[in-house]
Design brief:
The chain has 100 residues and is mostly helical. The protein contains three helices and no strands. It is elongated, with a radius of gyration of 17 Å.
Length: 100
Amino acid sequence: MIGFHHYLVLSAVLFAIGLVGVLRRKNLLMLFFSTEILLNAANVGFVAVSKFYADISGQIFALFIIAIAASEVAVGLGLLALWYKRTGSIDLDSLNIMKG
């Protein structure tokens, strides 16, 4: 039977995978994917704790995180498309040439 600790371990593993992706990736698209994994790990944790304590507030908070993640991806992909159109690359190293 799958218990509370199994969900927390899954959440921790997903968070670790996302954190490694954020720290190691040079591609902006993979950076967005890693951020989504981090947010989904937090969602799994919130929903598991919410179920364990029989309180709906963790599930509501997870829904807000999903909405924020969707808007983050929409804005981020728009900026990514614009950056690729301008430079021809989506590498993080190409962002060093930005002038403000």
